[in-house]
Amino acid sequence: MKTDLLIRNARQVVTFDQGQFKTFENVSVACAGSKIIHVGDEKQLGLESATVIDASDFVVLPGLIDSHTHTIFAGSREDEFEMKLRGATYAEIAQKGGGILNTMSATRKTSKEELLQLGKKRLVQALRFGITTIEIKSGYGLSLADEIKILEVIRDLREHTPMDIHATFLGAHSVPPEYKPKRDDYVKLVCDEMIPAVAEKKLAEFCDAFCEANVFTIDETRRIFEAAEQYGLKLKLHADQLTHTGGAELCAEMGAVSADHLEHISDRGIDALKNSKTVAGLLPGCSFFLNMQYPPARKLIEAGIPVALATDFNPGSSMTQHLQLIMSIACTQMKMSPAEVIQGVTLNAAKSLDRTDIGNIQPGCKADLVLFSVPNYKYIPYHFGQNHVEHVIKNGRMVF
Ligand code: NIG
Ligand code: FE
Description:
The protein has about 400 residues and is of the alpha/beta class. About 35% of the residues lie in helices and about 25% in strands. The chain folds into two domains: about 5-60 and about 360-400, Urease, subunit C, domain 1 (Roll), CATH 2.30.40.10; about 65-350, TIM Barrel (Alpha-Beta Barrel). The protein is built from 16 helices and 16 strands.
């Protein structure tokens, strides 16, 4: 059989068989075009390939998926970082006009072209970390024109990267200062103008909101979700992050693809997710960086809820693109196993983006693969803070 790319004799290949974590030792992965066509013994098939990579020193994983990021922002917030080290909380900084609104001001002032350049650099970094699919949210514009500007940058980035990019509209990230005395008008703007415009221009696949005390209430979030649904956007939510609001229950009820954060999810919230199709998207980089409570990963996993992990890359609560570091934090701080964290950044992350063609190494899947220079898969989160990626293959082509 003829193939385009043969990854020969990998030390270990990580796959999922009916959702179950499964490894193979000393096998080959064959790709034709942008698809995987065979995993196993190459001799049995008599494979012939144009390109061959000797993978005897590598562990092969599905391309990593960063399913929750805020990659498009201008400026940075290291001053607030220092304030937090001296005792200020995330919520206090936000109430003083810092936080999201600080980044909003910087992002509003920055041109599309400059944001595109920033985005390009960040995506190169992400690819080096083994990320082949990324979700990016708007949410630092908070006006119709600025939200569209960010979403257009996200759209245009696709021409500059081999990665798959999923766009999420997050106009309801914060109430901007000009709407502070009339917050209901902002919710109306999001529902009646922004969502229709975003949908009409096909700039986003998902709609997200920051459902939180002093940000958007459950009732406001429900209104936003109803508008989003009407315009064909799928739902995601920043839920139960700093306080318990019942965001997880709302996600389950409305069939959101993912409920993210969940540091303060209740037992009722866990029950609701258990009986839904919603994935739990955990972002332990935030708990680490803000020195706050971690989400109850073990409880969620034991309830049978698929758990995805992502960086939440943003300048306020998780200034990192290092998904392998997030995997280590998930192991040590939430007691997830190495196999569970790998599942969290591959199979379950794909699910949280409503994808079934990525996140696994199986015939028919997209040929998105990462070759790690490690002795076995457990070594990836174990040797923490390190980038173990040696090669990245996207759509059957070596891109790093
Ligand atoms: O996911 N929680 C809301 N949004 C981001 C933080 C954004 C920011 O601080 O700039 C998050 O943690
Ligand atoms: Fe976030």
